[in-house]
Amino acid sequence: MKLIKYYLLCFCILSHPIYSYKAEPVYTVHEYYTLANQAFEKNEWIEVIKYSKIIIQNFSNSSFTKDSLFYLGVAYFNLKDFEISNKYFTRYLKDDFNPKYFEEAMHYKYSIAHFFKNGAKKRMFNWKKGPKIVAAEEDAIEIFDEIIASMPNHEIAIRALFAKAEILFDDNEFKEAVSTFETIFERYEKHELAIESFMQIQKVYLKQTTYRKQDPNVLDLAKLNIEKFKESFPLEEEKTKLLEDLLLEMKEKYATGFLEIAQFYEKTNKKEAAILYYNKILNSFSETKSAKIAKARFDNLNEK
Predict the structure, then answer these.
(1) Which residue range is the domain that position 53 belongs to?
(2) Kindly report the CA angle at 263 between 259 and 269, in degrees rounded to 5?
(3) Total number of domains constituting the chain
(4) pLDDT for the residue numbered 95
(5) Is the residue at 203 inside a domain?
(6) Would you state the pLDDT for residue 102?
């Protein structure tokens, strides 16, 4: 029964005019373009698609075909079919270094990439029809890269770069995420996202750290990140404090790990090893909560 319902749903989708509409032209290309333009102005997106497709399918050499591709991109965007919308915007921008709606198309692409970044799905196997069930984060990165390359000095490119870094961060692509965030403050050091990039880098280092997984190099990189920030933004004391708080969280995780090892050695009567780890906590992570416990156990063992 579920399978029958699925096929009925697919049939309804594929029969919808926005996917299946075909017609022989009965008007001139100029008349069809006028109809498409009027529908566009009224936000009648199904009509926009119908007339624009007639122009593309039957008058491919017309000067109106280019604008029709843009109209289709906008129409599918407003119908929340972001995958097809992006494809039409790509076709619109192809082989033209200065199309009329260049900046508008790039802003639509930027919005599409953000929808993909935030969970909007696409169809399987690049099908033009069918249910949208596939994650599209890779498509988001591809679109962001397109924007960065096409408009390198535009505000939208900076925000695309930051959004790309966020995706990499969420996907645990730590090295690539840090590199992308670094690109932001290297290229656009005066931009507000330059400051936020330092914060995100610190969060990347924190995410890499657990009390069971401790890499001294990551801790050193977090300290270096703070020094670079102070050098670049000496007056941002509040942000510096936030970076230092994130570093302290990292130190807490390191100290917790060493404390667990020290307590294990103490319970198994390996007091010298326990003292060694308690002492390491006191020397390297004295400002942590674990250091207070380590101090009490260290003093107790030394008294004994």
Answers:
(1) 1-79
(2) 145
(3) 1
(4) 81
(5) no
(6) 96
